[in-house]
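I'd like us to work through together how a protein chain folds, taking it slowly. To get us started, please write out a protein record for me. Go ahead whenever you are ready, and we will take it from there:
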Amino acid sequence: MGAAAGLEQVVGNAADIPVWREIGETPHPATDRDHATVAIVGGGPVGLSMALELGRRGHRVVVLNRLDFISAGSKAICFAKRTLDIFDRLGVGDGIVDKGVIWNVGKVFRGDRDEPVYQFDMLPVKQQKRPGFINIQQYHVEEQLYDASAGMDTIDLRFGHEVISLETGESGVSLTVRTSGDEYRIDADWVIACDGSRSPVRSMLGLDFDGRIFEDNFLIADVKMEGERPPERWFWFDPPFNPGQSALMHKQPDNVWRLDFQLGWDIDREAAVTPENVERYVRAMLGPEVEFEREWYSLYTFQCRRMEHFLHGRVIFAGDSAHLVSPFGARGCNGGIADIDNLGWKLDLVLRGEAPEWLLETYDYEAVVTADENIRHSTRSTDFMTPKSAASRALRDAVLELARDHPFARPFVNSGRLSTAVSYPSSPLNTPDVDTWERGVPPGSPALDAPLDGGWLLDRLGDRFVLLANCWTDPVPTGVELLDVADYFSARPLLADRYGLTEGAAYLVRPDQYVAARWLSPTPDRVSQALRRATGLQP
C-alpha cells in the first residue's frame, strides 16, 4: 500500500484528526471582498504542488485549506519516480528524497515459504537520477511543500479558511470563505479543487462521482522498531501470520514501518483497531521478541471512482477530488501529482494569453486517461488479491504456484501494479510519427532520464518546450529552447541510443517532459507546426 486515495478512514471533524505540525489560522484578509487569479481549494500535497507549479511561473495563487495544521496519521507513503521528477522541477526533490527511504525491489511471498515466488525491479532502465520509489510519510512531503510555498511572494497560504459556498460564472468563480471569526468573499478567475475524496467543491456543484466500492477491510499498523531489514516492498499471499488473507510490509523514515493486514469484510470494525487486536497481528508477523512502539493504527476500506469530466467551466478538479483508486499500487497521491503537472503548464499558457482556453480540454482528456489506467490497474490488483469466488481464488493460487518456477506466469502475479507514468498515444497534442523508428520514446510518452556530463537530462529539459536534437544546424523556432546532444560528448552515445537520436534527428518535448513530436529529418517548419499543435493553436 502506498497512497491514501480511495481510503475511507479519516473522520471529518478536525478535532479527531491527529496533528503533525501546527500552522495556525491565517488572519482574515483586509477586505471582505478579495480577488485571486487562481484559488486552490485544499492544502494537501496536490494543492500545494499546484500552488508551487503556478506560483513559480509568476501567477498569484491563493490556497484555501480548511484545517489550520498539517495532519499526521496514516496516509500516502510511496512516491514514484515520476513524482520525484516533478518534485525536482518544483524545487523540493532533493529534500524529499534525502528524507525518504529509497527502494527499487519488490518481493512477493506465498504461504510459509521464505523464498519469494516473484520479485520485480521498479527501475528497469538504469542510469537515471531518481530511484523507482521512495517511502516517506505524507506529512513530511506536505511540510516541505508548505515551506517552499510559504517562501514565495506569489503564493498566499490561508490555513483555517474553509470554502462554504461558490457561485460560478463565465469569467470566474465567487467563493464564500469562513474563518473562526467571520466570512469573506474571494473572486477567482479560476478555481482548482484539490479538496480530497469527499470534495466539498464537487458536492457544491452537484457533480457525480461514479465507481465501485470494494467489500473488504484492511488494517494499517505503523510501528517504530529498530533492526536491520532491507528497504524493499514485501507482500504475502496467505501467510502463516494472516492465513487466507494478505499482508504487506514497507519501511519508512525514522525507523517507522508500515504493516498492512487484510481482514475480510464481515468483522467487528471497532474491535479490530484496539491495541490488543492490532498487536496480535504485528507480533505474529514480526515475532514475539521484536520490540516496537505504536505510531498509528487504523482500519480502512476503499473504492475506485472518478468524475466523468475534471473540467467544469472555470472550476478544475485534480487529485482525489477527481478520482479515487485502491491503495494497492500507490496510484493515488502519485496520480494527483501527475494531474497538477499536466495542468500547470497549460493553465500558465492560457493565463498569459499564449494559448486558447481549449488547451485545458486536453487536461481533461489526458488526466482522464491517467485516471482510467490507474483505476483499471487498481481494480485488477484488488480482484487478484481478494478473490470473491472459488474459481477466481483457484486461478489466483495456480498463478502463484506457477510463478515460483515458470517466468511466463510471473507477470500475472498482481500484488499491486505499482505507479508508473501513463502515456497518451492518442492525445490531440501529439504530432504523429511520419518516420519509422527502431527505438526511442514515442509521442505522448514521458521523456527518459540519462546522465548529462555531470548532470541529468530531465533537469536540463526543465519546464519549457525543448528541442532535443542531435547535430541541429537550422534556426530554432521561437518559443523553443535547443538542447543538442552533440554538445555533450560523453553523454551522446547513451542519449542517442536511449532516444534513437541518429545524427540529424530531433524530439520536441513539452514543459511536463512528455514527447510532443519526433523526426528523423526535422525542419524548422515541422517543429513550428508541432509546437502550435502542442499549445492548442493548431489542430
